[in-house]
TrEMBL record, chain A:
<feature type="transmembrane region" description="Helical">
    <location>
        <begin position="182"/>
        <end position="203"/>
    </location>
</feature>
<dbReference type="Pfam" id="PF02653">
    <property type="entry name" value="BPD_transp_2"/>
</dbReference>
<feature type="transmembrane region" description="Helical">
    <location>
        <begin position="51"/>
        <end position="70"/>
    </location>
</feature>
<feature type="transmembrane region" description="Helical">
    <location>
        <begin position="21"/>
        <end position="39"/>
    </location>
</feature>
<feature type="transmembrane region" description="Helical">
    <location>
        <begin position="102"/>
        <end position="129"/>
    </location>
</feature>
<feature type="transmembrane region" description="Helical">
    <location>
        <begin position="313"/>
        <end position="332"/>
    </location>
</feature>
<keyword id="KW-1133">Transmembrane helix</keyword>
<keyword id="KW-0997">Cell inner membrane</keyword>
<keyword id="KW-0813">Transport</keyword>
From TrEMBL, chain B:
<feature type="transmembrane region" description="Helical">
    <location>
        <begin position="35"/>
        <end position="56"/>
    </location>
</feature>
<keyword id="KW-0813">Transport</keyword>
<dbReference type="GO" id="GO:0022857">
    <property type="term" value="F:transmembrane transporter activity"/>
</dbReference>
<keyword id="KW-1003">Cell membrane</keyword>
<dbReference type="GO" id="GO:0005886">
    <property type="term" value="C:plasma membrane"/>
</dbReference>
<dbReference type="InterPro" id="IPR001851">
    <property type="entry name" value="ABC_transp_permease"/>
</dbReference>
<feature type="transmembrane region" description="Helical">
    <location>
        <begin position="249"/>
        <end position="268"/>
    </location>
</feature>
<feature type="transmembrane region" description="Helical">
    <location>
        <begin position="169"/>
        <end position="189"/>
    </location>
</feature>
<feature type="transmembrane region" description="Helical">
    <location>
        <begin position="9"/>
        <end position="29"/>
    </location>
</feature>
């Protein structure tokens, strides 16, 4: 009798709190089985999973960034613009004659300048995120429009800085961030793991995370509870900006180039993965684990479809269809 | 006096100041040729903006209309080429039907699953573009294959003049189409129950429902009309530039939303007017076109458009600040 009473809340908690995670796990597994069955000799190769670990991190970090913005009921449409601008600014730093000379000379200077490049990119991301945060929290511009506008400005600045063509010629250490290996696992994958862990801890174990959830659940109640909402929102967009810059570093490292209009399709995909991962776009709900599961599911889906020689356009359509499907499933589940 | 303080008046003053400024920097701005081409550039963006205006008054946002427009024009023109059909009325009706159908799909998802319009329309835009490019291909129908009827329709002029460089310039008749559509939308918004219910729904959905507004019908009306205008504008664009490109209008949603916000519509819903939107569209198109006249490098265009969005939204946010308190 007592055992039952103890069991029931536990079971209910498992279903109530983590039902979305379980559902996602099932979807991911189903896609994995389906894609393995449809490409029996190609999908289950080690090489396929290895290549996924190189492509996945940049999109994963953008999706986590989108989730953070959605926690307070906002959205960040400027993440791709920030990512490109950060990578391009770093690229311009590497192009500077003095820096280029030091890199050509080799030695410790290369590592030092790469670290400088990373810091420059992160600073660009932080500043861009702070700009978004100020527009949204202080000037009270609605997040969709504020980030729509800043996204244009960032992409425009990237275009002005490059004049159109891609920036190439990043140092090898920079490329290592996007293509290298550490302990047998892709370097960018490590970055994703670290970023995901930090954000998960931030959201679950710190004031910032708890406050953001509360603001997203009920903004007015949060104000009455004495939370400095606007400051918290400012921090959340700054965090989003920094993460976007990290994604930009990985993307430019992997492709060895940076361009004003790279990764335009990532925006929709980041929204999709965040929503699919159980994030409520109206705010208050979102988990890093959910986003990661959704990311893996969609990576399996698109790599499997590429093996079946589906055109990229059709894959875009499938992603969009998936988003609508998930909206429907989430709605039907929430009504129960 | 109150008229002078209205949002439309403020934007109109900004517009006139901008025109004077641009004219001072480069007198070529006031040339007949430039003014005619300016009017022409307003037509397509303007018609689409009227659809977005409806959506924004209802408190939503639509980023799928460029995809809908591209789908409507490309499907229609490709079908005409295949069937060797050369008419005007039927194709435009077909484009409108495609637009309404896709708009109804948006409305269905938004109404049935109670999802934020931005995310729904992001999804449908991706579906529509993906399917059109994936199933129909990416080849552009060029002038040599474009149906002649459409070209003839799109190249009618209502006025002709001789520019200072001796070239003959015409004012496209399509401005009349744009004007007529604007009048209809204005009438519907101001003087019909359907139009008033859009304002009511945007102001407060729950209050509108309790006051007896059929919210489902309102949502369907808004998104279907936005789809209709997008589909129509798509084919009109095609007949004006004499080609059908399935990748057309990529990124146009930003410009159109910027223009509508500039025109005083509130993203919180419940506010916005046809006149304001038309002035907003004119201002945005003029600024973009005039950057070249003012010898600003074209790479700066996106920065300027982005800055305009931020500025316009900051002003409207300041105006609407009481709602947030």
């Amino acid at each position: 009798m007592t055992a039952k009473a103890e069991n029931k809340p536990f079971f209910r908690r498992l279903l109530g709190e983590d039902a979305s995670i379980i559902q996602l796990g099932v979807i991911t597994l189903a896609i994995f089985v389906l894609m393995s069955a449809m490409n029996p000799d190609k999908f289950l190769r080690y090489y396929n999973f290895e290549s996924i670990t190189y492509v996945m991190p940049e999109l994963g970090i953008l999706s986590i960034a989108m989730m953070v913005a959605m926690l307070t009921g906002g959205i960040d449409l400027s993440i791709v613009g920030i990512a490109n601008l950060a990578a391009i600014t770093a690229g311009i730093y590497f192009r500077h004659p003095a820096v280029a000379e030091a890199i050509a000379a080799g030695g410790a200077g290369v590592v030092l300048h790469t670290i400088m490049g990373v810091l420059i990119a992160l600073t660009v991301g932080l500043s861009a995120g702070l700009l978004n945060g100020i527009l949204i929290s202080r000037l009270r511009i609605i997040p969709i429009l504020a980030t729509l506008g800043t996204g244009q400005v960032f992409a425009g600045l990237a275009l002005v800085l490059t004049g159109g063509p891609a920036i190439v010629g990043f140092p090898q250490t920079w490329n290592w961030l996007g293509t290298g290996k550490l302990l047998g696992i892709a370097a960018p994958f490590w970055v994703l793991i670290v970023v995901a862990a930090i954000v998960a801890i931030l959201l679950r174990r710190t004031h910032l995370g708890v406050n953001l959830m509360l603001i997203g659940t009920n903004a007015r109640a949060a104000v009455f509870a004495g939370i400095r909402s606007s400051r918290m929102i400012l921090y959340s967009y700054a965090l989003t900006g920094v993460m976007a810059a990290i994604a930009g570093i990985l993307l430019s490292g992997r492709t060895n180039s940076a361009k004003a209009d790279f990764g335009a399709s990532y925006l929709l995909q980041a929204v999709l993965i965040a929503v699919l991962g159980g994030t409520n776009p109206a705010g208050g709900k979102g988990k890093v684990l959910g986003v990661l599961l959704a990311l893996v599911a969609l990576m399996f889906l698109s790599s499997g479809m590429q093996m079946m020689r589906t055109s990229n356009f059709m894959i875009d359509a499938v992603w969009g269809g998936f988003l609508v499907l998930v909206i429907a499933i989430n709605y039907l589940r929430s009504r129960k | 006096m109150r008229r002078l303080q209205s949002t439309e008046a403020v934007i109109a003053v900004v517009l006139i100041l901008a025109m004077v400024l641009i004219g001072l920097v480069n007198p070529a701005f006031w040339g007949v040729g430039n003014l005619f081409s300016l009017a022409k550039s307003n037509v397509i963006i303007g018609i689409m903006a009227l659809g977005v205006l409806l959506v924004m008054i209802s408190g939503g946002i639509d980023v799928s209309f460029p995809a809908i427009a591209a789908a409507a024009l490309y499907i229609t023109v490709r079908t005409m080429v295949t069937l060797d059909y050369d008419g005007v009325l039927l194709p435009f009706m077909a484009a409108c039907v495609i637009g309404v159908g896709l708009g109804a799909f948006n409305a269905f998802i938004i109404d049935r699953f109670k999802m934020i319009p931005l995310i729904v329309t992001l999804g449908t835009a991706s579906i529509v573009r993906g399917l059109v490019l994936g199933l129909l291909g990416t080849s552009i129908v060029n002038i040599n294959k474009m149906p002649h009827g459409l070209i003839a329709f799109g190249s009618q002029d209502i006025a002709a003049a001789t520019a200072s460089n001796g070239a003959n310039v015409g004012l496209t008749a399509m401005v009349l189409v744009y004007g007529a559509i604007a009048l209809v939308i204005h009438f519907v918004l101001r003087h019909t129950m359907t139009g008033r219910s859009v304002y009511a729904y945007g102001g407060d959905p729950e209050a509108a429902r309790r006051a007896g507004v059929n919210t489902r019908r309102t949502i369907y009306f808004v998104y279907c009309t936005a789809g209709l205008l997008a589909g129509f504008a798509g084919l009109l664009h095609s007949s004006m530039i004499w080609q059908a490109n399935p990748r057309d209008f990529v990124g146009l949603e930003l410009d159109v939303i910027a223009a509508v916000v500039l025109g005083g519509a509130s993203i919180f819903g419940g506010r916005g007017s046809v006149l304001g939107t038309m002035i907003g569209v004119f201002t945005l198109v003029m600024v973009k076109n005039s950057l070249i006249l003012m010898k600003v490098d074209t790479t700066w265009q996106r920065v300027v458009v982005g800055a305009i969005i931020i500025l316009a939204t900051a002003i409207t946010a300041w105006r609407d600040r009481k709602k947030l308190a």
